[in-house]
Design brief:
alpha+beta; two-stranded antiparallel sheet; binds adenosine monophosphate; binds magnesium ion
């Protein structure tokens, strides 16, 4: 790096908002930082030259020991509904926004350190992160990105050389996370609870500048922003549903205005399909089960709408009426997004009224037959002709149920006609071969944590970066053996 040049060109805007939006806080120092991984491709996208410094210098930077010039570390204030209960003050308790950069495409992105020490919002927490959850977020967020699903990204992972104590002593780590922004429904709730309308207006304007600049200056800005967030979240949750992803903690503080997936705690991809599937150890009632996600998104958006009421109309009744009217559109927005995903998965290029029922019938048969979600859909393009159906039908306890469904599906494809090569290409892009299967993720984490061996993590990551290709090692595509099955996931906080 030439003298005088900085490794990261910060251009901060959140730090210019009033001081009540955050708490300024330097990161805690780590005794022996070590770079586990720097995401070179993402760094380049952010205008950061990964070769500008040695690994040790990057480790110092991302551990928070050497604050780069231009960084203005702060913990963002937010509130949130956690499992339905409103907590008026949460905030970044173990994360710091270092600052923002404008990437090579002209998009403003946050760089955040997660696990960088206590903040005024830490409550009883230690402000730290353990290596396992850091690697888990790295793997799953990068897998989501490769699947084409909006998500925060992993820029780097470092170990701190300091233990953290959960149920046991674990290696400490920091994740450098990149997001379109870290503005959540909970950020709006924080100010709504305090009846701080001035802050709410500023937050609406800031969010619009970042995510919907074309809305700047529109008269009904708050309502227009709400509609955009609804559209983004409808597409996001539909995309999750299309890959069998279960977020696990869809609290309003983990629900981003950017429409990106945020906060990879106890999230999981399912193997065998079931709409009621839950993995999170803390989700006792299944509030965030796979099949509930669209409804929860709707609920979270209604909480966002509530915070905006004073900005929607000065007459409270009129404000409520207009907000309700806007929110009422979510189920159909979601259904449209969901059907776009399902049509691509089924290779349908046109629309027919029976398509939703056709998709639902397959899912119901899959649930009855404990069919693997990913492999059933990956096998569908072969099943366009009956003699290529084995890969899909073999996923069913009773393959006849697949055959019966496939007859109706083939009749639908025949009515549509069209170019078979184009259909197969669409299906190949909509139906991944590889997802971050829980047992593979756990195996990679366990080896890294217990033996400081990052080989399995690196190998899994490289396969997950190309989810639509068949990997050389077939073990990455296979469902877990009975002894490998993971039933519970933990947020590890
Ligand atoms: P999460 O479940 O990760 O969305 O976190 C919910 C809230 O708990 C946020 O305010 C976090 O900042 C806070 N939190 C989680 N883990 C810790 C920790 N180890 N130390 C301090 N705060 C934490
Ligand atoms: Mg969170």
């Amino acid at each position: 790096m030439p003298p005088g040049q900085q490794p990261i060109s910060f251009d901060n805007s959140y730090a210019r908002l009033p001081e009540r939006f955050f708490a300024r806080q330097p990161p805690a120092a780590a005794p022996r930082p070590r770079l586990v991984r720097l995401n070179a491709a993402l760094a380049q996208e952010l205008g950061i030259d990964p070769g500008a410094m040695e690994a040790d210098a990057w480790a110092e930077l991302f551990a928070g020991n050497a604050l780069p010039e231009g960084a203005e570390p702060l913990a963002m204030a937010y509130a949130g509904h956690q499992f339905g209960n409103l907590v008026p003050q949460l905030g970044d308790g173990r994360a710091l926004l270092l600052g923002e950069v404008v990437d090579i495409h002209g998009h403003r992105r946050d760089i955040q350190l997660k696990g960088s020490g206590r903040t005024p919002f830490s409550r009883m927490g230690d402000g730290r992160a353990a290596l396992g959850p850091v690697l888990r977020e790295y793997l799953v967020s990068e897998a989501m990105h490769a699947l084409g699903i909006p998500t925060t990204r992993a820029l780097a992972a470092v170990t701190t050389g300091e233990p953290v104590f959960r149920e046991e002593r674990l290696p400490g780590a920091v994740l450098a996370r990149v997001a379109g922004s870290h503005i959540r429904v909970g950020t709006f709730q924080f100010f709504a609870i305090r009846r701080d309308e001035e802050a709410l207006s500023l937050l609406v304007a800031h969010t619009i500048t970042r995510h919907d600049p074309d809305l700047a200056g529109t008269p009904d800005a708050a309502l227009a922003l709400l509609r955009r967030v609804m559209e983004r979240q409808a597409r996001l949750v539909a995309a999750w549903m299309g890959v069998g992803f279960i977020h696990g903690v869809m609290n309003t503080d983990n629900f981003a205005l950017s429409g990106e997936t945020i906060d990879y705690g106890p999230c999981a991809f399912m193997d065998a399909y079931h709409p009621g599937r839950v993995f999170s150890s803390i989700d006792h009632q299944g509030r965030y089960a796979y099949g509930n996600q669209p409804r929860i998104a709707n609920w979270n958006l209604a909480r966002l709408a509530e915070t905006l009421l004073p900005l929607i109309d000065t007459d409270p009744d009129r404000a409520l009426e207009r907000a309700n009217e806007a929110i009422a559109a979510f189920p159909s927005l979601y259904e449209q997004a969901h059907m776009a995903v399902m049509r691509a998965k089924l290779g349908l290029m046109t629309e027919e009224p029976g398509d939703a029922a056709l998709a639902e019938a397959l899912l119901e048969a899959m649930a009855r037959n404990e069919a693997d979600f990913t492999l059933t859909f990956a096998g569908l393009s072969g099943a366009i002709s009956p003699d290529g159906a084995e890969a899909a039908r073999a996923r069913f306890v009773n393959p006849r149920e697949f055959d019966t469904w496939a007859e109706g599906w083939r009749a639908r494809l025949a009515r549509e006609g069209g170019d078979e090569a184009a259909r197969r290409a669409t299906m190949a892009r909509a139906n991944p071969q590889v997802i971050p299967r829980n047992h593979k993720v756990e195996e990679a984490l366990a080896t890294a944590v217990s033996q400081e061996d990052f080989g399995p993590f690196e190998r899994l990551l490289s396969v997950l970066e190309r989810p639509f290709d068949s990997p050389e090692d077939p073990s990455f595509t296979q469902p877990p053996a009975a002894s490998e099955r993971v039933f519970r996931t933990f947020c590890g906080t």
